[in-house]
Amino acid sequence: MATIRTPEQTRRRGVLAATVGTIVEYYDLTVYAYLAVVVSPLFFPGDDPTASLLASLAVFASAYLMRPIGGIFFGRLGDRHGRKRALLFSVLLMGVGSALMAFLPTYENAGVLAPILLVIARLVQGFSAGGELGGALTYVYETVGEKRKGLGASFVALGSNSGFALAAIAVAITSTLTTDAQMTSWGWRIPFLLGIPLVLFCLWTRTRIEDTPQFVHAAAENEVAKAPLTELLRTHPKQVLQVFGLGVAQNATGYMVLTYIGIHLVREAGFSQSSVTWTAAGVIVLVAASMPLAGLLVDRFGSVRVLASGLLASALLAYPAMSMMSGHGLFVAAIAFMFFAVGTPLIQTATAPLFPSLFDSRVRLTGVALGFNIATIATGGTAAYIATWLIDRTGSSVSPAYFVIGSAVIGMITLATIRQKTYGGLRTGSRAADVLPSTNALDDDVSVRRR
Predict the structure, then answer these.
(1) Could you read off the pLDDT of 11-32 as tens digits, one per residue?
(2) Which strand (E) or helix (H) includes residue 302?
């Protein structure tokens, strides 16, 4: 006899499946970043450690070049054949990329083939990641109730940051239990191997969910978009640009916290890799734990107000926080790190329901994935590279703060277009976003036909 689940159980299971997937995605993508200092000489040997690190960070960024392509592919898959299918395939491909990373030969063993294989593995990871966040946000947005879209979406943001935290913890534990020689020889492979069981668990959770009511209705009425990308660019070009502008700010502020500051504390402040990794893990855990609270704020005050607060906090705190990271001891550096990260949960949680609210269900996954992934190329995967390059060029250890400030300003300008011009303010956040442009699948279908 089949088990009959209540709507609330179905929603919780869907949110869990989406959250676990984002944990896997960001764990697999960022383990490499936390190992950059260790891995760079293994694949890019040379006399200049800065050049070696920049080459390694460029490979980290290369994965993000594939994200828009992956976003288009998985957007089409999800908008035409169902959100569930896109979520399953994206995490399966991510597992393949993680396995490739774990068994890569080094430059000493394979010569120039080693960095080539490294790039290929990262491109596979980037392609699969291109559909993950957009798919998860779309699935949760279409699954949770009207009054809890902020809280529901906050768990997707919680998942992404938990992936970063788990990556930092895995690297910290591995580096603590191994000597420097062991870490260089084989220890760096362990965090990549640990990602494989995470993928298997995620696959299990996603096989047990149902597709969203909006997509099921659209499929039953034969209202599924035949060419989602073409329809998206014809009907929602402004919304794609808005997701891009907000995504620039979200990625710059988020990836500086999640991938660069740890490198900064080792290279510029002179702290040990092990202590910095544990510090980064602690800060990221605090950021992740605050996501549900930020989600409640979104449901209470609206996406626009919460997002504006987060952008303002990031812009104002970036410079003084970075100024305190060197020369004052690890405890002060950790406090400065936490202040630097204050805006991150507000920004990520506020955009989580806002992005999918800008699109009709026919092109929602494609729209979120395309706009956000292009922004991720610009300021996400490149954040650590840009920050390292700025210091190398200017000689100032606080120069990366200007990158954060400039990106936050872009976000605030973009947010002003949504508040003032597009949808009349979104004053009540996710609930207002629900009805603009639509409240349910029927409204989505009607709005598209009217075009």
Answers:
(1) 888 888 888 888 888 888 778 8
(2) none
